[in-house]
Structure formats: structure tokens, C-alpha cells
Write a structure and sequence with these properties.
The protein is α/β, with parallel strands linked by helices. It has a single domain, classed as putative 2-phosphosulfolactate phosphatase (Alpha-Beta Complex). The protein is 38% helix and 19% strand. The strands form 3 sheets. A 5-stranded parallel β-sheet has the order 7-2-8-1-9. Strands 3-6-4-5 form a 4-stranded mixed β-sheet. Strands 10-11 form a two-stranded antiparallel sheet. Strand 10 and strand 11 form a beta hairpin. The protein is globular, with a radius of gyration of 17 Å. The termini are far apart.
Length: 257
């Protein structure tokens, strides 16, 4: 029985796009793009169109025919002229239900551009951790691509990667399947999570770790601590958004009523 291989790119720049060919990739930007995407889709967003730049988002919005919201940030703050920023809290059913979200963020939507050669690209965050693990438990080659913050490694994304690996390994062992092979970077991420989890087990909130990470420090400075609390909740949502690599849109995969 073949053992799956799990890898972690601590930044998009640390993995070549070509090396992701044929793989299942999970893009993560815990603070905040991927958390926001999961939240928006859960609250009724029709689809998300990730954009690599503010200019691309504006052009996509101008060309879009239908009911759309243009959202995103630069420096953590809402872009001038956009309807919304990049807070998962602001994408409520009132603001996003039955609408397309055209989203441009500094890190997360840019990281997705790096993954065009992959076989599948899934959107991961702490809020849908177990759902992602269940989705990829049979996949043979998986890479978690951490978006980072301003081209620097940030702890919250690495913690997600480690937590995801721990969850997948547990699922496979319970099913009497080989646990899988970890690359060096995957082992580092798993170790980081296990060290952190010991303090979580003693009652320290995950949000406290996020506040002291590079991405969290930036959000605290600009008054977005509620986003940190929201993004630190584990398994809030049971859905795994997937990026359609041909249409370059992200949808809620759950069947509609």
C-alpha cells in the first residue's frame, strides 16, 4: 500500500509552480483571506473570484455582469472604492448572499496564482480544518501552501499546516492506513503545532498565538482583533471551497437546497 507524501511550502516563493503539477494543494491564509472565503461562501456567496491585484479586481468588477461585491485590502485596510474589506466577520448573509465576491488581498489571493499547475486547489483555514482533512485523506501527494504576510513566513499559517497534518495522520491510522511520509518542512510544521497544542491543552487560547504572529500583530495595530478571534476557531464550518482552475472561481461545494 502506497504511503501518501505530505509537504508544506512555508511561503509560495519556496515552492516552484511546476513542482505542484498533479498535486492536491491547500492554500491557507488564516489571517485572513482563506478564512474570509470560507465565511462568505457559508453565508450564501455564489462564488469568489480571487484576483492578484487591486487593478485586476477593479477590471473584473467593471466587466462582471450580475450582482457582485468587490472586496479586499492593502495593508489590512479596505481598498478605497471597494464595497468591503477582508474581514470574515463582515461577509454576513445580508452583505453577500446570492452575490459574487471579487476579492483581492495582499497575500492569499496572490498565493493562489502560484498554484495553477496543481490538480486540485482547496481553500483551508482553522475554521474548516477537519473538513479539509476529510477531503484529502485519500490523496497521494498533498502540499499546503502558506501565504505568509508581506513575503515573510507567518506562524498562523504554519500552525494550520501542522494541525492539518496531525488530523490527517490520525484519520489514516484510525482507518488502518499508512500514516504517510512527511517532508522536512511538513515535519517542522507538525512540530510547531504539537508544541503549541501543549499550551492550548493547558487553556491558552489559540487567538493569543495568532496575536503574536506577524499577521496578527498587523491586525491588532489596525483594530481588527475580532477577526483574529474568529479565525482562531477550529472546525466552525463543514465545507471545503475548491478553486476551479479553468474558470478561476471558488464555490461552495455543498449541494444547494
Amino acid at each position: 500500500m502506497n504511503r501518501p507524501v505530505y509537504d508544506v511550502a512555508l511561503l509560495p516563493s519556496l515552492v516552484s509552480p511546476e513542482s505542484l503539477t498533479g498535486q492536491t494543494v491547500i492554500v491557507v491564509d488564516v489571517l485572513r483571506a482563506t478564512t474570509t472565503i470560507v465565511s462568505a461562501l457559508y453565508n450564501g456567496c455564489t462564488e469568489v473570484m480571487p484576483q492578484p491585484s487591486v487593478e485586476a479586481a477593479r477590471m473584473a468588477y467593471q466587466q462582471f455582469q450580475g450582482d457582485a461585491v468587490i472586496g479586499g485590502e492593502r495593508g489590512g485596510q479596505i481598498v478605497e472604492g471597494f464595497h468591503q474589506g477582508n474581514s470574515p466577520i463582515e461577509y454576513t448573509p445580508t452583505t453577500i448572499k446570492d452575490k459574487t465576491l471579487i476579492l483581492a488581498t495582499t497575500n492569499g489571493t496572490v498565493a493562489m496564482e502560484h498554484c495553477r499547475a496543481a490538480n486540485r486547489v482547496l481553500i483551508g483555514a482553522m475554521v474548516n480544518l477537519d473538513a479539509v482533512a476529510q477531503q484529502i485523506k485519500e490523496d497521494s501527494q498533498v502540499t499546503v501552501v502558506c501565504s505568509g504576510t508581506d513575503r515573510c513566513i507567518t506562524s498562523e499559517d504554519v500552525l494550520f499546516a501542522g494541525a492539518l497534518l496531525e488530523r490527517i495522520i490520525a484519520i489514516r491510522i484510525e482507518a488502518n492506513q499508512p500514516a504517510g511520509q512527511l517532508t522536512d518542512m511538513a515535519s517542522i510544521a507538525l512540530g510547531h503545532w504539537k508544541t503549541t497544542r501543549r499550551e492550548l491543552d493547558q487553556g491558552k487560547p489559540l487567538a493569543d498565538f495568532f496575536r503574536n504572529a506577524r499577521g496578527g500583530l498587523n491586525l491588532v495595530k489596525i483594530g481588527h482583533d475580532p477577526d483574529i478571534v474568529f479565525a482562531s476557531q477550529i472546525d466552525t464550518f463543514n465545507l471545503v471551497p475548491e478553486l476551479d482552475l479553468e474558470r478561476w472561481t471558488i464555490k461552495d461545494p455543498r449541494p444547494k437546497n
